[in-house]
Design goal:
Length: 421
């Protein structure tokens, strides 16, 4: 569910007509709903009610400060994967004890930043990382809390570029080596073992891969406890998918996911951490664009919009589907046309949809790309020297720009020309 609905013939974000925002900020822009963010966070939090738990929002999905502050005020922790994300979380007022640091390539500088600023745990992804973290913590006179990320070799049955739990993926330590690595960590002066971490992929639409992974984690927990390790926390990652295409079968709900966690792991007495990102942010945002031209091609009709692959790269990168709807509600029963929806970037890959059935569109019409709140603005670039587009947050009948569009001068003046030129 989201809060982008037609009312009186016009798409609204909560109580604000989308054309009103377009007139104020220009197109294209990202538009987020406060009510949807709140609802989706509560779904996860309530799904784990009665269990000792923390919902750590995966910041890589959408890391705007306003979004982080909104979720932090609801009690969310944060899952970060870089020093920059850690700094953003702290700037949004998230205390260190609610920040989990994941990622395969943590540098010593990033580790130092988190140790100095406070951290709930490092999710350690390799033995070299474990050594580096231990050495640094010892020199700082600290103990770094850790969970070791295990790779359970489970096929998440998702897109190859976002699968993380198979043996050939770069993430985690093979589960077959876990006991040896935990024994090694137990002998290190600079780390403190807190638990186990696992994450098998993103946009999962079936609970069975989760079940397989969690049962392996359950067995490992019992083995590690028998080895004398104090396993008191299980970080189960994120990955639950969202319905990008309306009318298709919906992915499992957070309530069903929570029930699976209780069924597989609820008897271990561990604190549960989860790291949802896409399901919290995805349907909480849309991207609004304006039609520049309707172009007749050889046997094709192109809808050329003012947003490009640099603004929303998911279709070009993942062959991802986004529903694209007119901002003005079409009349019932109107004959539809078929368009290739494309942007202005000088790449054939700058295509959002092929053979998409839509109501008749004209130059100047506004369209909304649904389910664009996750992995949209955070993956945007200035390719073709196109400025990053604004982000706007709605709350009831109010809206605010939470990231402004830079001017051409602001974008260009970041360059530095050496003296010899």
């Amino acid at each position: 569910m989201d809060h982008f609905l037609y009312r009186d013939g016009t798409l609204r974000a909560e109580d604000v007509p989308v054309p009103e925002i377009a007139a104020a900020v220009g197109t294209p822009f990202y538009l987020y709903s406060t009510a949807t963010f709140r609802r989706h966070f509560r779904l996860f939090d309530e799904a784990l009610a009665g269990l000792d738990h923390l919902v750590c929002y995966a910041m890589k999905a959408n890391s705007n400060q306003a979004i982080l502050k909104l979720l932090a005020e609801m009690g969310a922790g944060m899952d970060v994967v870089s020093g920059g994300e850690y700094a953003r979380a702290k700037a949004a007022g998230v205390p260190g004890e609610r920040i989990v640091f994941s990622g395969v390539g943590k540098t010593r500088e990033e580790m130092r930043m988190a140790l100095e600023g406070g951290i709930r745990q490092f999710n350690v992804e390799s033995e070299p990382e474990l050594e580096a973290l231990n050495d640094l913590a010892v020199t700082m006179g600290l103990k770094a809390p850790i969970a070791i990320r295990v790779n359970p070799d489970v096929d998440a049955k998702t897109h190859a570029k976002i699968a993380t739990g198979k043996a050939e993926n770069k993430f985690g330590i093979p589960i077959s080596r876990a006991r040896a690595v935990y024994d090694r960590a137990a002998g290190m002066a600079g780390v403190e073992i807190t638990g186990i971490d696992v994450h098998i992929g993103s946009q999962l639409t079936d609970l069975e891969p989760f079940r397989q992974a969690y049962l392996k984690v359950k067995d490992l927990t019992r083995q590690l406890r028998a080895d004398g390790h104090d396993i008191r926390r299980l970080d189960l990652g994120g990955g639950l998918g969202i319905p990008y295409q309306r009318g298709n079968e919906a992915p499992p709900l957070p309530t069903e996911y929570g029930a699976l966690i209780r069924e597989t792991l609820g008897d271990l007495g561990c604190e549960i951490e989860i790291e949802p990102g896409r399901l919290i942010a995805g349907n909480a945002g849309i991207m609004v664009s304006r039609v520049i031209y309707v172009k007749e091609g050889e046997g094709r009709k192109f809808l050329i919009v003012d947003s490009g692959m640099n603004d929303l790269i998911r279709p070009a990168m993942y062959e991802a589907h986004h529903d694209i709807v007119p901002v003005q509600e079409p009349a019932p029963g109107i004959a539809r046309k078929t368009y290739d929806v494309v942007g202005p970037v000088c790449e054939t890959g700058d295509t959002f949809a092929r053979d998409r059935s839509m109501p008749p569109m004209r130059a100047g019409d506004l369209v909304a790309f649904r389910s664009a709140g996750a992995y949209g603005a955070v993956m945007a670039s200035e390719y073709n020297s196109r400025p990053l587009i604004p982000e706007v947050l709605v709350n009831g009948d109010q809206f605010a720009v939470i990231r402004a569009r830079p001017s051409y001068d602001e974008m260009i003046n970041r360059d530095r020309i050496p003296e010899w030129l």
